[in-house]
């Protein structure tokens, strides 16, 4: 996306926003309603507010057949009653027949129009205009008027990843609803283009501007919202190359991972073999390097756990290590002034003695014979006497 420096810095939040100037009258209804700061209406977007508004979206999803949905206005008295109940955090039973789908549809648009900033945010305004200009090129390299749908979808996927989580959640719910509405246009007479005209002022227009202020960009904005509705089922996925890059970064990380992360990682690697920084080492005969790296990381983690103060959490972690059969306890070399516990094998015990420079064994053949044993006895950290050495015999 080719954004000028100033507009790009606004998108990144590095500079102050510069909104299109307003030369006409403010939209009076929204201007007055914004004075009423309720729990939901006119307040900043929150997950709690979305949970309340979802009652309207869920009800409308069951009434998509109503002709003129979102175009025909509802009853203002019933809308005010609904508004007060939503602001009070009440659960509303819209199936009683006391409210008409037109009441609910109009109230949903009112909620969007009273947000402190558009659902797509002021920072993303210029980016959406640039996305609408992405077109194909002809054989001579000249720009055509045919939209480049693949590039537009990819740009929108990346842009939506930058949205605040609450905006993204509500946008997905809303676009899913409008997508399903457009699919039933044979009954409700509301195509994606008609819906875009209804919703563009509420989700993308900068606040306090009129259609005349946006005359030059009005077609781009309406076409952009129509494009969002038609392709809404693809826009909330990350591009494939972003997934591959994140997967590569994840598998190459030395950070200890949770059980869920490990399962995800193992499942992903089994499906696709991804290049990594260690791939050249593996091709050069260094296939064991990755295994040693994993063992080193496990030993470091185990040492960290053993150095923790005594607590129930520490005991739980130790039990998890033992349950998984992680060979960290045997491979970890303790400090020289620490007494060794009982070894599971005589070979492991002799290895510890050699590492501690405390064991003197004469004869190479005797050492080779001792390392093949499998006894559970223990030896003190003192040089062995000839009599003790002679008693050290294996079957």
From TrEMBL:
InterPro entries in UniProt: ARHGAP19_RhoGAP (IPR047941), Rho_GTPase_activation_prot (IPR008936), RhoGAP_dom (IPR000198)
One Pfam family here: RhoGAP
Keyword Protein biosynthesis carried by entry: no
Feature: compositional bias, Polar residues: 357-380
Coiled coil: none
Residue ranges of the region described as Disordered: 252-295, 309-395
One CC-aspect GO term: cytoplasm
Record-level GO BP terms: regulation of small GTPase mediated signal transduction; signal transduction
PROSITE patterns given in the database record: RHOGAP
Keywords, ordered alphabetically: GTPase activation
Annotated Rho-GAP domain residues: 26-236
GO molecular function annotations of the record: GTPase activator activity
Biased composition annotated in UniProt, kind: Low complexity: 383-395
Described function: GTPase activator for the Rho-type GTPases by converting them to an inactive GDP-bound state.
Protein name, as recorded: Rho GTPase-activating protein 19
């Amino acid at each position: 996306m080719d954004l000028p420096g100033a507009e790009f810095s606004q998108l990144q939040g590095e500079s102050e926003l510069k909104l299109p100037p307003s030369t006409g009258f403010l939209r009076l209804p929204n201007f007055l309603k914004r004075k009423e700061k309720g729990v939901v209406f006119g307040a900043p977007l929150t997950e709690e507010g979305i949970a309340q508004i979802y009652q309207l979206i869920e009800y409308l999803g069951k009434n998509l057949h109503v002709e003129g949905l979102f175009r025909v206005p509802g009853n203002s008295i019933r809308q005010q009653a609904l508004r007060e109940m939503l602001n009070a955090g009440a659960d509303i039973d819209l199936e009683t027949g006391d409210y008409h789908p037109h009441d609910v549809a109009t109230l949903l648009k009112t909620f969007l129009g009273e947000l402190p900033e558009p659902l797509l945010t002021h920072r993303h305004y210029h980016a959406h205009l640039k996305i609408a200009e992405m077109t194909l090129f002809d054989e001579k390299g000249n720009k055509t008027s045919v939209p480049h749908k693949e590039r537009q979808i990819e740009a929108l996927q990346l842009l939506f990843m930058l949205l605040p989580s609450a905006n993204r959640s509500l946008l997905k719910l809303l676009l899913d609803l409008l997508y399903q509405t457009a699919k039933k246009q044979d009954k409700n007479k509301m195509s994606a283009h008609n819906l875009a005209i209804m919703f563009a002022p509420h989700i993308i227009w900068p606040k306090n501007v009129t259609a005349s202020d946006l005359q030059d960009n009005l077609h781009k904005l309406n076409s952009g919202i129509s494009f969002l509705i038609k392709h809404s089922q693809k826009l909330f996925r990350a591009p494939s190359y972003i997934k591959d890059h994140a997967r590569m970064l994840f598998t190459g990380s030395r950070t200890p991972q949770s059980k869920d992360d490990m399962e995800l990682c193992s499942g992903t690697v089994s499906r696709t073999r991804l290049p990594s920084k260690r791939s050249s080492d593996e091709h050069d005969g260094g296939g064991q390097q990755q295994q040693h790296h994993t063992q080193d990381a496990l030993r470091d983690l185990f040492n960290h756990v053993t150095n923790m103060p005594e607590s129930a959490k520490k005991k739980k972690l130790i039990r998890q290590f033992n349950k998984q059969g992680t060979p960290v306890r045997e491979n970890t070399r303790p400090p020289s002034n620490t007494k060794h516990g009982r070894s599971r094998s005589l070979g492991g015990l002799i290895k510890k003695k050699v590492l501690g420079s405390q064991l003197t064994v004469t004869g190479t053949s005797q050492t080779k014979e001792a390392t093949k044993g499998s006894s559970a006895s223990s030896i003190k950290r003192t040089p062995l006497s000839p009599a003790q050495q002679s008693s050290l015999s294996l079957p």
